[in-house]
Design a protein that fits this description.
Structural class: alpha/beta
CATH superfamily of the largest domain: Periplasmic binding protein-like II
Helix content: 40-55%
Number of domains: 3
Radius of gyration: 24 Å
Largest sheet: 9 strands, mixed
Number of strands: 11
Number of helices: 10
Order of helices and strands: HHHEEHEHEEEHEHEHEHEEH
Amino acid sequence: MDDRWPHFLKAFWVLDVVVRKGSFSAAAECLNVSQSAVSQQIRLLESEYGPLFDRHPRQLKPTESCLGLAGHLRKGFSHIEEGVIVSRQKSNQITLSVLPSIGSAWLIPRLHKFQELYPDIEVRLSMSGALVDFSDTGLDAGIRLGTGDYPDLIARPLCDDEVFLVCSPTRLKEFSQPPVFSDLRQQLLIYDNARSDQNWPAWVKATGQDDIPVRQKLMISDSGQVIRLALSGRGVALVRRVLVADELASGELIKLFEVSLKLTSQYYFVLPKRSRGQPAVAVFYEWLKSEFEPYRS
């Protein structure tokens, strides 16, 4: 090994992130450093290896030599990451990236059952709606709602879902028996910030109506809060079946109409290849499958 290589180690890591993120600014944000600090590390490498990027306004294009170097670096850093994971396996710790909706409304209320079965496994949750980069974090796996198209990740389907309207038994007394769509003119609609094809416009389309007027709308990004407001009788809520399955079973919430919007997305358990042999991840996945089983249609 060249004696100078350790001197460039930090710069090599910065170069790897720049190439993967596509810009100095994105790399700086990922590494939580300034853009000038990233530029400084790249200049250090360019003093040794020559130009690594063709710099154009609003565009940063890696040179051929840069791509060749970056390819070798990614392989090396992947081996290092795998080694770190192997050393962590003995600690029986798993760190999960979870959607806030499924995390707060579904997983956390059930997590005590896993902890009772496997008291030696420590579970850490990172709740975020963003698609995290598993190569830049200490995350072992995650739960996502999507099509299963996650490059460089292993995606294992858990269950599908659907969207429909619910309300509390108290709120139901304000509706005709059986309820009709025109009753919604007097109701507050509570919904989350899901895409339009998973939200109110798509549900209305599924009813066959051109429009269904409501008295007022309230959008809350946290699906757990949407459910809580519905439970308290504040209005009607557009929700996903999986998230309110327990409340429907207990009678705390009532499905208002037979109309359901079947989602094209599914819940997936995703993990990077380096987590594939981790015992704690395998155990958690098997437990998760059994918990999702009643919600599969």
